[in-house]
Input
Amino acid sequence: MIGWGVVATGGIADVVTSDMKLVPDAEVRAVSSRDSAKAAAFASRHGIPRSYGDYHDMLRDPDVDVVYVATPHSSHHVVARNALLAGKAVLCEKPLTVSLRDAEDLVSVARKQNVFLMEAMWTRFNPLIRLLRKLVADGVIGSIRSVHADFGEPFAHNPAHRLWDPAAGGGSLLDLGVYPVSLAQMLLGEPESVASHGSLIDGVDAEAALLLRYPNGVSAHLSSSLVGNYPIAATVVGTAGRIEIPPVFYRPTELVVIRPDALPERHTLELHGFGYQYQIAEVDERMTAGDKESPEMPLEETLAVMRTLTEALDQLGVSYP
Output
């Protein structure tokens, strides 16, 4: 059994912890929160044996093998870094950090400590996304010419909410845009150049449209938004057909292969839980094997995605404290 410790007790921690119960080799043994009462309530709700009012105390728990960091973006770096220095494996919510420099630091610390680290880009491990990669690699739709993906939905403007707060790493790109960018780079690699256009509210990107350029005219057209009502769908266009991922592409239950002179080929998935269990199983498998990172979400790719996001944010004029 792999012993898990959860840092933070917000909505994402609640859902992911519930999905951990769907993984036979995962056992949640501790939870921490700055509010000890919240930690105790979370532990009671999920049947977790120990709760802590300070995550440093949880890092000293010998029964915790891997730490899941579910804090706001701005706290990812310090919490994950301390966990790595304590010798704990880390699964850290995306984006790994709010800056490329901090992301590079975490990767460096993980490698020096010889400890497992992975960004929690859970979409990568969904069975249909794994199938997408295989279909593309097998040339089912020929050579890829473009990737289109959008993730946007209206969020009420509230300067006190983390999504609108620069100090909390707010804005659409880091919270939502990381999904389209990660999908595109999973299939096409790091782009030659990035062009971004959007608008700011309270110093964070309320919306962003990205054009990623690749050799020979290949491109990715991506968008994220806190103000627009987007379909949250994705399409991969090839020379011999296309693959469509209906809403919502970050948690797909259907994938459609469309080729000329052929009926659409539909692949479906019946999800149990919310879908986070696949990344939890990946971490357990890698830790059991003694691996220090995941080949499906390698650290170099996390850094590459962060470079793209950083370039886009710089062009939009977003800077975080």
